[in-house]
């Protein structure tokens, strides 16, 4: 599919290697994989692990940058004009002035582009120089340069005389030196530098390694990866060297959620005899960007490097973006070019006609020496006219735009033209912080007692209802926010009620049990219900049993890892720290790091210190949770120590904020998803505290109301987007002594699996469903909980034993293992007994609902593109006001289940066509459906998706990959021809950010990849409101009107030359001095022109009007009045007067239209006016110039100054009159506000 995507989209994907690969470890290459008949090196070569996100290299910068610059029509035009002026026949005698404008423009732009790309190079160098540990002591057969590795890589400690390179030891190398087939040692907190198969971890029993995937899918929760069964027992480098195997892997693909490979075990290095075959899946794969968490160490073998890794295949290549104004400017330049050609043709034709008339006169030889034919003379005049009128196209326009953007924080004009905005969810709209709010158990609700504040979704719905009522009663009445109206009294009353509930809750808890792990701190509680504590005291009734089973399920049905904190907020214990092999490996790695540090030369102390941080200091970090400190080569050690001390103090303060003073022993949970951690945390605070694993990870320890129990863990059925549920099977100790399946999942899935014949379920289902509906209306995420006893009688016990035997066969199957396991999971997850439901709120960032509401009122259509499941995405849509109850939600699902995508699209279109005019729709579509839409040849589906989506008020795309995000953005951008913005905060959003016209990165918990790839970086989503609606709007006004003003001043400058041609028989002579001609745009009028308010043609004809006034004012002035100084008159004296007046008017024009004067504008306007007078004086002081003595001739006469001021007044008179009439008699909203503000300021003074 990737190849087809490349053909059907302009999203520039990185190339994907064709064909599968075979990766060998500790094994000679098979003959078919060698060159030269089995005697050479590896036949297949792999890309290096070096990455490059920069646009240029040192050898491509000049040609590529020149190509980028000369894509602009104006630059290409002036390059041609410079070449023409260098031709001798046109008599231009100053090649320096000829080449200066175009060279200056190109040079300034090249310096800016080079500096920006240099910053990207520095970021690439930092990532490529990340240290990691590689197993030494064997030859990597997959690497062409394996035999020269010891000498080639200076950072590679693989030297024959180096003790670190002895057999079975890990030594430090840089990320860029990692190769396919290398064995890497990853430690807690380290990022995986390549795509690797997990071979072993500190959990030797189960081979579990927890990873953080936020750089790929945007999720900050932990996910487990499982080591290959045949190698998970390896606990050091020597154990790894005892293994001999090769991996058959498919070609690299950008799919983050699937991988199918095979590991073939052999018996020695020279034999390829298969001992066993093991299937490999995505659960065995560590991807580049995964960060190891809650696992002391892991060992993995590299299968994909560099641009073959999944994150790089999803990132795309760095695009060359051009703003809409930049693109539209080309069309305006073409208009100016057409006017230029028209002027040149007029002059050429008239020159030929007049030449023919002159040739017919008998005395023509007395006043002309031109002997060319009229046709050829007209032809030469055409090119001369091009030189004369060349300034009608402003050469400095692009440089001036960059100049203005520099002083306006490099804001793009596209920010003021955004029509579609595409946003990530996790970390962008939300803080990825889940809070347990309510629950429904046995049909009774808990938590709806006003202890927790109102949810954002409920508040948004309430405000909308108030606004609707207000508009219905009095549309003219201004909006009143009732929260603001109540003010502090409302807050104080709510806080008092909250504290009263908390006091009653603590009193009821202490009557039930003495809390050791349960928190009673208001800061750490989002759920507290005294009635729950009272009901838990009765464990003899059905309701009491349901309560105990409900919270026991929450304490057991998860994959959380426990961390214990001391009173300073430091981590004091991890579940995987007691293994002797772990301590042995830690000591071994620390010794290696110390030896490497001693061997590093003094000049590279910074590098060695950085690498050594990963050794002993990180060991200390595992034990106490203290962050490692990176050393510096600062020349002021005391200054660096002070900085480090400040950092340590701030970190200590942050750790203290985590401390809960109300508990005897504080537990924190690291989970695959934040909502799972919230569920376990709530169970702990209620009195059902999960304490961690015991007995070689086979037991789950839970403290239930002060008594500790050990539950034997038999099976875990993990959650996925297809199952939409999770289950565990545990053997409960006394007093239960039974085996139970606990299950939690989406309501539609769970209700279909309940035992419909159970009277208990029948009594609970209706009320539970009612409560779930209420939670959903409040924007809460819901889960339904149920259980099943598996050995209630002998028949059930026999059936369960038979099921276990079949499950064992399925888990060891080489083919269709996942499908067989899913069938068995489904078989057991039936006939459940309903316990209740939970309701969790995903906390939004501050101001997100208000920001989205304002952006939508501004006409911006907002799409949310997320990797979350469909239900989660819909809930967030409601909580952030993207979706509301007035919308009819259209859901489109893919994956081969149910109706086809085409039929679902057809059904959606029918609903839209049949709906009333005031009906509103929202679209929710999943990644599986988008896969079919973007498949090659499905152009019809793409068009249908666009047609449906543009008629929807909101669109949510869920379970989408990073590549699909980019394709969605590009689909709307290209088909609707609109300006798009993409905002995200993780590496998984980079492709989307690059595909949009404007990319915004949120610098947060998920790294800096999005910020580095984006055009702009902000701290929170709510800042988009000011960025787009204030700064973006005004910047668009400034840039667009500045462009119009540029065309005005160039039209104004050029047309006096046309009027001069009338009185010079269209001779093609230059009206202005050549220095004026070349420096007009580059020096005399380079100041930024802001805040103008007219359109292109208005400016065009205004420039023509001013040119007529100025030219003929001085024409008649010099025609009537003789020179009072007795000096000979010249056309240069008149042209200088016109030039000076034109420059002054061109600089006064932006001042006339400026809404707010700043010191910056005062300085530049005055400076530019002063420069033209100084130029005439200074340049005219040199005797060998044509301007010699011109300052005295022009400025020394009274008629120049009189004509100068009269011409300025008459030129501005039409503009002033029209502006006065509009602003005082026909003002728009903006003018009215300005008048009010001005009047208010006058009253104050």
Please provide a written account of the structure.
About 50% of the residues lie in helices and about 15% in strands. With about 1250 residues, the chain is an alpha+beta fold. The strands form 6 sheets. Strands 16-15-26-25-24-23-22-21-20 form a 9-stranded antiparallel beta sheet, with helices on both faces. Strand 21 (about 700-705) and strand 22 form a beta hairpin.
From the structure above, extract its key features:
1245 residues, elongated, single chain, eight-stranded parallel β-sheet, 16% strand, disordered N terminus, alpha+beta, nine-stranded antiparallel β-sheet
Topology:
Elements lengths: L1 H7 L12 E5 L35 H9 L3 H13 L9 H34 L2 E6 L12 H4 L16 E6 L8 E5 L7 E7 L6 E5 L1 H4 L4 E5 L10 H5 L3 E5 L11 E5 L10 E5 L4 E2 L4 E3 L3 E8 L5 H6 L8 H36 L14 H15 L8 H11 L12 E4 L6 E12 L2 E3 L9 H18 L8 H31 L17 H7 L5 H15 L4 E5 L5 E4 L5 H20 L5 H20 L12 H22 L7 E5 L3 H13 L1 E7 L4 E6 L2 E11 L7 E8 L5 E8 L1 H5 L7 H19 L3 E9 L4 H18 L5 H12 L4 E12 L3 H10 L3 E5 L4 H10 L7 E6 L8 H14 L5 E7 H7 L5 H12 L3 E5 L3 H15 L3 E5 L5 H6 L2 E5 L6 H5 L2 E3 L4 H41 L10 H11 L11 H25 L10 H22 L6 H21 L10 H6 L2 H28 L3 H16 L1
Parallel strand pairs: 14-27, 14-31, 27-30, 28-29, 29-30, 31-32, 32-33
Antiparallel strand pairs: 1-8, 2-3, 2-4, 4-13, 5-11, 5-13, 6-7, 6-12, 8-9, 9-10, 15-16, 15-26, 17-18, 17-19, 20-21, 21-22, 22-23, 23-24, 24-25, 25-26
């Amino acid at each position: 599919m990737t190849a087809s995507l490349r053909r059907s989209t302009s999203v520039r994907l990185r190339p994907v290697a064709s064909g599968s690969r075979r990766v060998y470890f500790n094994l000679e290459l098979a003959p078919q994989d060698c060159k030269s008949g089995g005697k050479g090196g590896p036949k297949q070569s792999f890309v290096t692990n070096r990455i490059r996100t920069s646009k240029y290299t040192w050898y491509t910068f000049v040609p590529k940058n020149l190509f980028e610059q000369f894509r602009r029509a104006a630059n290409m035009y002036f390059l041609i004009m410079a070449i023409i002026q260098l031709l001798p026949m046109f008599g231009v005698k100053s090649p320096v002035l000829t080449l200066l404008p175009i060279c200056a423009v190109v040079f300034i732009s090249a310096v800016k582009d080079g500096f920006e790309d240099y910053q990207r190079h520095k970021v690439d160098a930092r990532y490529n120089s990340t240290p990691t540990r590689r197993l030494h002591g064997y030859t990597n057969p997959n690497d062409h340069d394996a035999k020269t590795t010891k000498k080639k890589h200076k950072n590679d400690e693989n030297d024959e005389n180096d003790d670190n390179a002895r057999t079975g030891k890990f030594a430090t190398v840089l990320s860029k030196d990692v190769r396919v087939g290398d064995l890497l040692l990853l430690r807690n907190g380290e990022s995986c530098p390549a795509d690797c198969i997990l071979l072993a971890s500190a959990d030797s029993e189960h081979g579990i390694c927890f990873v953080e995937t936020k750089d790929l899918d945007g999720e900050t929760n932990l996910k487990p990866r499982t080591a290959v069964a045949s190698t998970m027992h390896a606990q050091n480098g020597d154990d790894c060297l005892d293994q001999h195997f090769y991996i058959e892997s498919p070609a690299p693909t950008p799919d983050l959620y699937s991988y199918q490979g095979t590991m073939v075990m052999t018996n020695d290095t020279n034999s390829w005899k298969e001992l066993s075959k093991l299937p490999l899946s995505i659960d065995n794969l560590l991807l580049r960007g995964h960060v190891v968490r809650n696992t002391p160490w892991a060992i993995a073998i590299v299968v994909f490097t560099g641009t073959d890794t999944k994150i790089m295949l999803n990132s795309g290549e760095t695009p060359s973006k051009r703003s809409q104004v930049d693109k539209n400017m080309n069309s305006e330049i073409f208009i100016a070019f057409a006017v230029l050609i028209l002027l040149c043709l007029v002059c050429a034709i008239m020159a030929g006609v007049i030449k023919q008339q002159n040739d017919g006169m008998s005395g023509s030889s007395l006043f002309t020496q031109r002997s060319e034919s009229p046709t050829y003379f007209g032809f030469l005049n055409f090119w001369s006219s091009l030189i004369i009128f060349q300034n009608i196209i402003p050469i400095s326009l692009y440089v001036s735009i960059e100049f203005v953007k520099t002083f306006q924080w490099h804001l793009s004009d596209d920010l003021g033209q955004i029509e579609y905005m595409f946003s990530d969810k996790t970390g962008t709209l939300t803080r990825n912080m889940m809070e347990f709010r309510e629950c429904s158990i046995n049909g009774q609700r808990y938590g709806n007692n006003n202890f927790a504040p109102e949810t954002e979704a409920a508040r948004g719905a309430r405000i909308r209802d108030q606004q609707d009522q207000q508009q219905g009663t009095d549309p003219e009445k201004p909006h009143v926010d009732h929260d603001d109206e109540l003010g502090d009294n409302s807050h104080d009353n709510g806080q008092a009620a909250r504290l009263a509930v908390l006091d009653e809750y603590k009193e009821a808890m202490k009557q039930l049990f003495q809390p050791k792990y349960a928190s009673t701190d208001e800061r750490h509680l989002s759920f507290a219900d005294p009635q729950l504590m009272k009901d838990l005291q009765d464990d003899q009734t059905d309701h009491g049993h349901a309560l105990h089973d409900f919270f026991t399920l929450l304490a057991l049905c998860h994959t959380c890892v426990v961390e214990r904190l001391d009173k300073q907020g430091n981590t004091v214990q991890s579940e995987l720290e007691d293994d002797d092999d772990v301590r042995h490996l830690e000591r071994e790695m620390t010794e290696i790091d110390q030896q490497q540090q001693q061997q590093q030369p003094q000049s590279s102390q910074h590098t060695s210190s950085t690498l050594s941080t990963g050794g002993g200091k990180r060991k200390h970090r595992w034990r106490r949770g203290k962050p490692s400190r990176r050393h510096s080569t600062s020349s002021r050690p005391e200054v660096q120590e002070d900085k480090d001390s400040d950092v340590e103090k701030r970190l200590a303060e942050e750790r203290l904020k985590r401390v809960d003073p109300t508990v005897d022993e504080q537990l924190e949970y690291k989970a695959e998803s934040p909502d799972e951690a919230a569920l376990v945390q709530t169970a702990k605070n209620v009195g059902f505290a999960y304490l961690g694993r015991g007995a070689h990870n086979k037991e789950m320890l839970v403290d239930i109301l002060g008594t500790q129990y050990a539950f034997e863990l038999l099976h875990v059925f993990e959650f996925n987007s297809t199952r939409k549920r999770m289950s565990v099977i545990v053997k409960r100790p006394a007093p239960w002594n039974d085996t139970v399946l606990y299950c939690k999942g989406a309501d539609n899935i769970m209700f279909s699996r309940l035992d419909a014949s159970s009277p208990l379920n029948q009594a609970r289902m209706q009320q539970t469903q009612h409560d779930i509906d209420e939670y959903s209306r409040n924007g809460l995420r819901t889960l339904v909980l149920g259980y099943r006893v598996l050995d209630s009688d002998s028949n059930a016990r026999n059936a369960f034993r038979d099921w276990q035997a079949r499950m064992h066969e399925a888990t060891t199957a080489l083919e269709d293992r996942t499908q067989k396991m899913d069938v068995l999971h489904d078989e057991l997850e039936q006939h459940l007994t309903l316990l209740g439901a939970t309701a969790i709120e995903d906390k939004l960032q501050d101001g997100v609902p208000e920001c989205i509401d304002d952006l939508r009122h501004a006409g911006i259509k907002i799409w949310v593109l997320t990797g979350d499941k469909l239900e989660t995405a819909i809930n967030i849509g409601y909580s952030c006001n993207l979706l509301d109850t007035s919308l009819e939600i259209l859901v489109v699902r893919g994956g081969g289940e149910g109706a086809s995508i085409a039929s679902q699209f057809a059904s959606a279109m029918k609903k839209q066509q049949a709906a009333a005019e005031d009906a509103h729709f929202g679209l929710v579509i999943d990644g599986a459906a988008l896969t079919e839409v973007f498949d090659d040849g499905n152009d019809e589906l793409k068009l249908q998706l666009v047609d449906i989506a543009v008629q929807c008020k909101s669109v949510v795309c869920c379970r989408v990959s990073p590549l699909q995000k980019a394709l969605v953005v590009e689909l709307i951008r290209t088909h609707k021809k609109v300006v798009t913005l993409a905002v995200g905060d993780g590496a998984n959003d980079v492709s989307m950010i690059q595909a949009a016209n404007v990319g915004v990165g949120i610098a947060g918990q998920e790294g800096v990849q999005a910020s580095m790839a984006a055009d702009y970086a902000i701290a929170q989503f709510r800042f988009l409101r000011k960025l787009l609606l204030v700064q973006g709007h005004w910047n668009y006004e400034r840039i667009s009107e500045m462009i119009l003003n540029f065309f005005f001043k160039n039209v104004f400058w050029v047309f006096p030359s046309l009027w001069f041609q009338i009185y010079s028989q269209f001779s093609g002579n230059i009206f202005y001095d050549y220095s004026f001609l070349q420096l007009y745009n580059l020096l005399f009028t380079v100041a930024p022109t802001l805040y103008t308010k007219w359109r292109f043609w208005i400016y065009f004809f205004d420039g023509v009007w001013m040119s007529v006034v100025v030219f003929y004012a001085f024409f008649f002035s010099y025609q009537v009045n003789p020179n009072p100084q007795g000096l000979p008159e010249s056309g240069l004296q008149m042209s200088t007067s016109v030039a000076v007046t034109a420059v002054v008017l061109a600089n006064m024009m932006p001042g006339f239209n400026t809404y707010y004067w700043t010191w910056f504008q005062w300085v530049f306007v005055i400076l530019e006016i002063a420069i033209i007078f100084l130029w005439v004086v200074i340049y005219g002081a040199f005797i060998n110039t044509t301007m010699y003595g011109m300052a005295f001739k022009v400025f020394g006469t009274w008629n120049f100054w009189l004509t100068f001021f009269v011409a300025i007044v008459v030129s501005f008179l039409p503009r002033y009159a029209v502006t006065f009439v509009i602003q005082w008699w026909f003002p728009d909203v903006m003018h009215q506000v300005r008048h009010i503000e001005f009047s208010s300021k006058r009253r104050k003074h």
